[in-house]
Amino acid sequence: MRTRSADPATPPSIGYGYLSTPEDRRRMREVVRVTAELVGTSDFGEVSGGLTEPGARVLGDDRLLDEWVLGHLGTSQHTCGTVPLGPVGDPRAAVDPYGRVHGVAGLRVADTSILPTPPLRGPAATAVLIGELVADAMRRGVT
Ligand SMILES: Cc1cc2nc3c(=O)[nH]c(=O)nc-3n(C[C@H](O)[C@H](O)[C@H](O)COP(=O)(O)OP(=O)(O)OC[C@H]3O[C@@H](n4cnc5c(N)ncnc54)[C@H](O)[C@@H]3O)c2cc1C
C-alpha cells in the first residue's frame, strides 16, 4: 500500500502484486484448467449447467488464459494493520495496546487497522474484541 497524497481524504493506492511472477501465473492457469475439467465431469452435472467460460481456445493457450484471468481476478482480502499497535520506538508501531495513537493526545483507533499481523481467520470477531478491549480501557480510565 502506498500513500498517494498527504491529504487524508485521498484514498491510498493498494497494489496487491497479483500474478506478478511467472510462478503465480502458472499456478493460476493450473487452477482454472483443473476447475474447468471438474465442472465438465458428470459428477457436477446435478449442480452445474456446464462451463460457460473460458472456452477451449482460451484454456488451451497460456497467453490468452493469463489475459482472461487478469480480466476476472478480484480480491476478498480483509485489509488490516495500517496503524499497527506496538511499543513507542518501534518504527512500525502507531498505537499502544489501548489504541492510543503514539504522540497524539486524546486520539484512539479501535478497529482492525491496529492489528500488527493479519488474523488467520475472518476478522469480524477480532474487530469486535478490539472494540470491547478499548472501550473497557476507557471505562477503567486508561487515558
Ligand atoms: C464482503 C465482506 C465479507 C466479509 N465476511 C466476513 C466473514 O464472513 N467473517 C469475518 O470474520 N469477517 C468478514 N468480513 C470482514 C469484517 O467485516 C471486517 O474485518 C470488520 O468489519 C472490520 O471491522 P473494522 O471495525 O475494522 O472496520 P469496519 O467494519 O469497516 O468499520 C469502520 C467504520 O468506520 C467508519 N468510518 C470510516 N471512515 C470514517 C471517518 N472518516 N469518520 C468516521 N467514521 C468512519 C465506517 O463507516 C465504518 O462504520 C467481511 C468483509 C467484507 C467486506
Automatic annotation (TrEMBL):
Note one Pfam family from the annotation.
GMC_oxred_C
Domain of life from the UniProt record: Bacteria
**InterPro entries recorded:** FAD/NAD-bd_sf (IPR036188), GMC_OxRdtase (IPR012132), GMC_OxRtase_C (IPR007867)
Domain Glucose-methanol-choline oxidoreductase C-terminal, which positions?
2-131
Region described as Disordered: 1-20
Family, according to the entry, reads as follows: Belongs to the GMC oxidoreductase family.
Q: What is this protein called?
A: Glucose-methanol-choline oxidoreductase C-terminal domain-containing protein
Top-down, what is the taxonomic lineage of the species of origin? Bacteria, Bacillati, Actinomycetota, Actinomycetes, Kitasatosporales
